[in-house]
Design a protein that fits this description.
Blueprint (H helix, E strand, L loop, with lengths): L2 E5 L2 E4 L4 E8 L7 E7 L6 E7 L6 E2 L7 E6 L4 E6 L8 E8 L12 E2 L3 E6 L1
Parallel strand pairs: 2-11
Antiparallel strand pairs: 1-3, 3-8, 4-5, 4-9, 5-6, 7-8, 9-10, 9-11
Length: 123
């Protein structure tokens, strides 16, 4: 059974950085697409970034481009989301997701989810 476990969240001051990790286990991930969503209180879950397990086909949503970077470490079965210059509006639970199919930004169509890691940005 595929499992995704996020880590690296926390409380950070605006302007700081965080490195979120998503550890994948329970499967062979060659050909998978992985990505990050976030959900702020009272808001819908929104797409943040995706990447192919081989490290290609990466994309970061326009609203965070230049501050967020996604990468994959095949040797460690881990996906990384590097977040720089954090803003208060980045406060959310960040979720890792994966699919065996082509990537979609529709959360309901993705195959696997982690439980999330909380990111809180203070002023």
């Amino acid at each position: 059974q595929v499992q995704l476990v996020e880590s690296g969240g926390g409380l950070v001051q605006a302007g700081g950085s965080l490195r979120l990790s998503c550890a994948a286990s329970g499967g062979t991930f060659s050909g998978y697409m992985l990505g990050w969503f976030r959900q702020a209180p009272g808001k819908e879950r929104e797409f943040v970034a995706h990447i192919g397990w081989s490290g290609v086909a990466d994309r970061v949503t326009d609203s965070v481009k230049g501050r967020f970077a996604i990468s994959a470490d095949n040797a460690k079965n881990t996906m990384i989301l590097q977040i720089n210059n954090l803003k208060i509006e980045d406060t959310a639970v960040y979720y890792c997701a994966a699919t065996r199919s082509d990537w979609t930004n529709r959360a309901v169509d993705l195959d696997y989810w982690g439980r999330g890691t909380q990111v809180t940005v203070s002023s």
